[in-house]
Amino acid sequence: MLHGTTQTPACWQPLQTLLHQSGHRTFAADLTAQEDWRAEDYADEVHRQFPETKSPTIIAHSGGGLLTPATAKRLNAGHLVWIGALIPDLTGTTSMLEELEDHGEDMFPPEWFEWSGADLLTEPAISAYFLFHDCNLEQLKFALTTLRLFQPQGAFHQRHRHDDLPPSTVIVPRQDRVIRPEWMCRAAAQRLGTTPIEIDGDHCPHIPRAQEIAEIILRRE
Question: How many independent structural domains does the chain possess?
Answer without folding.
Answer: 1
